[in-house]
Amino acid sequence: MQESLEDDKAMDMVSINLLGKTSFADAMVIASGRSDRHIGSIATHLVKRLKGAGIKPVRTEGLRQGDWVLVDAGDVIIHLFRPEVRLFYNLEKMWSVDTTTQFNPGRAAV
């Protein structure tokens, strides 16, 4: 997953460990893209790579609008934002995360 995001030039990646905080996922990854089109491209490539790695089902929300796309890969939820939308929703603060945390979702690279 990290490799896919890096290959597609996702920016400011943060991983949030959700173990013990919620039952819907083990980790959340948040990253930014430069534009709606860039975010859509990142999400489309990520979904293709996740499915190719045997992770199913993979669901998306917001792909049509593109300013915020959610990719649900089961144990990992990926949020892709335009920077101003990410700042508005501020999920890092909502989940009380140190924003200097390095990307490390604890899953095999896709």
Walk me through what this model shows:
There is one protein chain. This protein has 110 residues and is of the alpha+beta class. The protein has one domain: Beta Polymerase, domain 2, CATH 3.30.460.10. 31% of the residues lie in helices and 25% in strands. Strands 1-2-5-4-3 form a five-stranded mixed sheet. It starts with a helix and ends in a 16-residue tail after the last helix.
CATH class: Alpha Beta
Unreliable spans: none
Side by side, the strands of the main sheet go 1-2-5-4-3
SS strand fraction: 15-25%
How many structural units, i.e. domains? Answer: 1
Q: Major beta sheet, specifics?
A: 5 strands, mixed
Query: Into which percent range does the helicity of residues fall?
Result: 25-40%
**Which structural class do you get from the secondary structure elements?**
alpha+beta
- How many angstroms separate the termini? 4 Å
CATH level-two architecture: 2-Layer Sandwich
Number of helices: 4
Question: Topology of this protein?
Answer:
Elements (H helix, E strand, L loop, with lengths): L1 H6 L3 E7 L9 E6 L3 H17 L6 E3 L6 E5 L3 E6 L1 H7 L1 H4 L16
Parallel strand pairs: 2-5
Antiparallel strand pairs: 1-2, 3-4, 4-5
